[in-house]
Each structure stands twice: as C-alpha cells, then as structure tokens.
Design goal:
Oligomer: homodimer
Helix content of chain A: 40-55%
CATH class of the largest domain in chain A: Alpha Beta
CATH topology of the largest domain in chain A: Dna Topoisomerase Vi A Subunit, Chain: A, domain 2
Radius of gyration of chain A: 21 Å
Number of helices of chain A: 8
Order of helices and strands of chain A: HHHEEHEHEHEHEH
C-alpha cells in the first residue's frame, strides 16, 4: 500500500468506533471524492476556532456561547455537566431551557483531580452574582460523579439555592435486563409514587 | 450548537458508515485531542499526492506503484479489477503474487460506460508487450461484471493468453443462508468434484 493511503488509514483507525475496515471504506470514499476530503479538511481547520465560553465553559467561537447569549433562556437555572459535549446531549432532549456550567471533569482522588482543577469556584461565583434559583446536577451516577455532586452540594447549600439532580433509572423503552445493577439500584431508590 | 462544530458534524456524517451519533463521538474526540485532528488533517493533505500508476492504473504516489516496481512479483500474470481499492482487498489475501490492471469501472450500457471509458486498450497492449501468460478476472459476478468479463475474453482470446475468473461461491465459514441466490447459483455452477 502506498504511504499516503497508509497514513490516512492509520489516522482514521484511531478515531473512536472506526475499525480498519471502516477506515478503508472512508479512505476510498475520500479518494474517489476529493471534494469531500476538502470539506472535511475545511471543517477540521475550523476546529481551531473553537474555544470556551467565559461564562459557562461550554464550546464557543469567541465570546459568549450561543446559549449564554440567548436572552430567551431561563437565566435563573444552571445545569451542571462534566464535559462540554454533554451540553449538546441535554439540548437534544428539548426539555431544558436554562443555562449550563461545564465543570471540565469530575473530582477524582485517584487521578489527583481536586476542586481547584474544575470550574467549581466560578460556579459558586455565578450562583451568587446571577441570582440563580436552581442548580441541576447532570453528572455520571458513578463514584466520581457522586463525589462531585456531594462537593457541589456542600458549596451551594449555604447560598440558599435549590440543588437537584437528574433522575437516574432504567432507560425508556428498554427491558430491565438492559440496565446494569447500579442503574437499577438508582431506579429503585428514585421510585415515583403512582 | 456553534457553527464550527456543526460543520464538522455535517462533514463527518457524510462519510460512509458514519451516522450522526458516530459523527458526534468523533467530533468530540477531535476537540478533546487537537493532535489527532492535526494528524487527520496532515493525512488528508497527503491525499493530494495520490495519483495513478501509469502501468496498472492502481494508486501511486508518482511513477510506478509499489507492486509494479517490485521485481519479485510474477510478471507474467495480471489480475484485472474494476476499482483501485480492490487491489488492496486481493493483496490482503496473501494468495496472489502477480501484477494488476485496474479498469476504472465496468461496462454499463445503461450508464453509458463503453469500452473507451475503461483502460481496456491498455490491457490488451500490456498483454502483448509484457508477454503475459494468464489474465485473472476479479470482477463483480453481476450483470456489468459479466458483460465486462465477456468483452475482455473476446479481446484477449486472439492473443493466445489464458483467461480465468476468480471463483464465486458461498463465503467461507458462513451458512448457506448467508449467500444470496445469485451467489448460490454461481457456487452450484462452479462446483468442484470431490
């Protein structure tokens, strides 16, 4: 195989969910359609413009992100997520109309990630300055997410703001079998009276 | 969503086998790892170097391709394929050690693709000039592949070269169910006495 093709295959194979066969299909497609390769290159170049919003730390192309700029969003509610792309996942539900705060990770004593490595101080400052009424935690229902949630609760409780957590439970439309024990345990604890 | 991210998602979603969800996973991965985005951009830039081998019309980075340059390949056998990436599929078997000839497509009266649109004249010229002893046709066992195979047979028979076709049949390690009727029909016709 010629080196240029081998390099493309190896670059593509490193992407998540792309095996060698998928990489080949994509590489041959890009060779057959140079205009698609150009489009992808332009899009990748555009990534260098992507920075972080100074208010919520979500993705932004300079200045405030589109959500923080939008006056129609509920300015009194902040949803806290660990990673910037989780904002998009929540947006997709169409169920949330408030603001976000991206922590930049989760507390992890084993990985040496402490409160000062996250945007926690800025969250506290925002709640104070923005007159936030509710903070919704949308963090992984695992050890590190729980640890981070408890830490945030301790920080925010003194400010008198309402702190809630998204419900964890059995995915909609799935069999009970599809849920692992931890999820099922959460679903039981978070049961709703009928 | 910010425009730069939207553009990347749309460019990725156009690739074969990549849906919206896979595109998101890849985009967020590339945002988190700028060095991987750089690597992919470099590899895409390298594609502009990929041309065609003047002898076999397979992929090349200028001049003869690695296979045509390799004196250890059997110079008396040519395997004919429709598309340049099919060379790689055959190479992967490790069962073939001869040369290739890439047609650039298949004859298709309905799409208006005639003999002059393919590298057929060059194949004939090569067989004459290179003293080829066997031409192996590795074309799709469908209408257009068969049409092309018959055409090549007519062109090459007068030259006294042996022309063969790869066997079509039930994929190894698969149930009979896995083969469509056309394949199964071919497998029956091409049965081997035991």
């Amino acid at each position: 195989m010629i080196p240029a093709l081998e390099e493309l295959l190896s670059a593509l194979s490193r992407l998540p969910g792309i095996g060698r066969r998928s990489a080949e299909r994509i590489a041959f497609y890009l060779l057959a359609k140079p205009e698609e390769a150009q489009r992808l290159m332009r899009a990748l170049t555009g990534l260098s413009k992507v920075g972080r919003c100074p208010r919520c730390h979500g993705f932004s192309e300079g200045g405030l992100c589109p959500i923080c700029r939008d006056p129609k969003r509920d300015q009194k509610t902040i949803c806290v997520v660990a990673r910037p792309w989780e904002v998009e996942q929540i947006e997709r539900t169409g169920e949330y109309h408030g603001l976000y705060h991206v922590l930049g990770g989760l507390l992890s004593p084993t990985s040496g990630i402490g409160p000062e490595d996250l945007t926690l101080a800025h969250l506290v400052q925002r709640v104070k300055e923005e007159g936030t009424e509710e903070v919704i935690l949308a963090l992984e229902p695992r050890l590190e997410g729980d640890l981070t949630a408890m830490h945030i609760l301790r920080l925010l409780k003194p400010l008198g703001v309402k702190v809630s957590q998204i419900a964890h439970g059995v995915p909609v439309g799935r069999d009970l079998e599809a849920a692992d024990e931890l999820t099922l345990g959460r679903a039981l604890k978070g049961r709703i009276p009928l």
